[in-house]
């Protein structure tokens, strides 16, 4: 797949070669549909669309001649699967690099500062890779209220610094709040106290005092300890969290891969044993991932810190509400999101000989103008983002107009996504985007 080169000093370079495709199946009915409310559950085999009856406006019909099974196969094998395996590689590297930093910090070795920077670089690489996955949420990433996803990355719900500081102390002591009957176990901790957000605080925050407005018995001694003691405690906590991320990433892969994995459910749509009655319903499930651009990217990552919605500052520009504010990695996150969106839309993944994407589907359904508007919108959004000098956090205050321009360009894409895109391809508008704040 095309791998993002982050704006930071990190160079993300991985070559992934995955192959395989599903059985070719073409659609036979319909051409467009009008979204009229709650649609049928696309993964419910007991509720198929009957092509012999009049089209219900709440039910997607299936376009005519395009080989949707081939599109599903390319997106699964050459875009979605490589993103998941790439992140797992970076998660493992992050665990290793943080471990090396911890050893040097405990020994107060001469190269500790260099290893600290390398540990931060490993986080940047892992975070950038994860931001591709953030925009590719299907299957195991959505199961049980996004449980596994949240264990790796819980923004914006997680990340309260006081909660993380408490866990750093509990982790070091091996017990919760001085209670020997409550041994510390990262597996049982809530998602807001671990994951990539917790590692960001532990590695990047240069304020080594705790962030709580109160002090329990376990936390009280913290601010009086030596800087190196606090640095080691944070690092060792980050190393444990990094291991938990690897475990959860491995669990996602195990649910995605294999004969009974979700990838095969998509690839074998229409065949016995698949939860998808047709390739069109499998494709509809994948298309929902694109709507991350609406609420999460447009509204939360851009609109909220801009003050378009209520934030920590009320209804005004609020730089501390950007994503990854401690590391100031927000811009890189957005860039990865935009490029992941483009990968799904164009089908440009690990196999450069196969680039069947939604853009080709639009061409087949007389939606070439829609395709071109969306491609132009993606390019303009990325170009607007790249005009921002420095971090997004700084630009929210010092160059608000440029951030507003990025928001405007992203909105151009999401407006097309929610209207002409789904109508031309007879796809569903996810309920989470039906009430999108435009």
TrEMBL record:
The cross-references to CDD domains, in alphabetical order and at most eight, read:
Imelysin-like_IPPA (cd14659)
UniProt-listed InterPro entries: Imelysin-like, Imelysin-like_IPPA, Imelysin_sf
Leader sequence segment? none
Give the matching Gene3D superfamilies. M75 peptidase, HXXE motif
Q: What residue spans carry the Low complexity bias annotation?
A: 22-32, 41-64
What GO cellular component is one of the record's annotations?
cell envelope
What are the start and end residues of every segment in region (Disordered)? 22-64
Repeat is among the record's keywords? no
Q: Which compartments does it reside in? A: Cell envelope
Coiled-coil intervals? none
Superkingdom of the source? Bacteria
The alphabetical list of record keywords is: Signal
The record's section on Pfam families has: Peptidase_M75 (PF09375)
Q: Which residues cross the membrane?
A: none
User: In this protein, which residues make up the domain named Imelysin-like?
Assistant: 82-413
This one is known as Imelysin-like domain-containing protein
């Amino acid at each position: 797949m095309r791998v993002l080169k982050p704006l930071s000093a990190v160079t993300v370079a991985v070559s992934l070669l995955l192959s395989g495709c599903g059985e070719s199946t073409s659609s036979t009915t319909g051409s467009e549909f009008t979204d009229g409310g709650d649609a049928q559950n696309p993964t419910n085999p007991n509720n198929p669309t009957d092509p012999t009856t009049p089209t219900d406006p709440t039910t997607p019909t299936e376009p005519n001649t395009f080989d949707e099974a081939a599109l599903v196969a390319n997106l699964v094998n050459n875009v979605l699967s490589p993103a998941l395996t790439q992140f797992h590689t970076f998660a493992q590297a992050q665990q290793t690099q943080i471990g090396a930093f911890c050893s040097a910090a405990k020994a107060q070795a001469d190269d500790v500062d260099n290893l600290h920077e390398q540990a931060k670089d490993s986080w940047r690489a892992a975070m950038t890779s994860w931001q591709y996955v953030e925009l590719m949420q299907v299957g195991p990433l959505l199961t049980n209220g996004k449980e596994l996803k949240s264990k790796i990355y819980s923004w914006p719900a997680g990340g309260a610094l006081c909660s993380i500081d408490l866990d750093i102390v509990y982790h070091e002591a091996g017990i919760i709040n001085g209670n020997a009957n409550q041994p510390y176990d990262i597996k049982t901790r809530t998602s807001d106290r671990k994951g990539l957000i917790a590692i960001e605080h532990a590695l990047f925050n240069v304020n080594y005092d705790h962030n709580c407005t109160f002090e329990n018995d376990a936390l009280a001694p913290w601010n009086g300890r030596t800087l190196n003691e606090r640095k080691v405690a944070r690092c060792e906590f980050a190393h444990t969290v990094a291991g938990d991320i690897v475990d959860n990433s491995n669990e996602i892969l195990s649910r995605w891969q294999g004969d009974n994995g979700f990838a095969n459910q998509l690839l074998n749509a229409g065949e016995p044993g698949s939860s998808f009655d047709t390739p069109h319903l499998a494709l509809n499930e994948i298309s929902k991932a694109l709507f991350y651009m609406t609420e999460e990217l447009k509204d939360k990552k851009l609109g909220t810190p801009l003050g378009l919605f209520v934030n920590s500052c009320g209804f005004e520009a609020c730089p501390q509400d950007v994503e990854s504010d401690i590391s100031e990695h927000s811009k890189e996150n957005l860039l990865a999101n935009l490029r992941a969106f483009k990968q799904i839309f164009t089908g440009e993944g690990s196999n450069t000989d196969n680039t069947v994407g939604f853009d080709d589907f639009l061409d087949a359904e007389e939606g070439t103008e829609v395709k071109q508007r969306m491609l132009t919108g993606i390019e303009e959004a990325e170009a607007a983002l790249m005009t921002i000098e420095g971090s997004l956090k700084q630009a929210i205050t010092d160059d608000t107009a440029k951030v507003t321009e990025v928001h405007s360009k992203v909105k151009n894409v999401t407006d097309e996504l929610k209207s002409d895109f789904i109508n031309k391809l007879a796809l569903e508008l996810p309920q989470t985007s039906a009430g999108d704040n435009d």
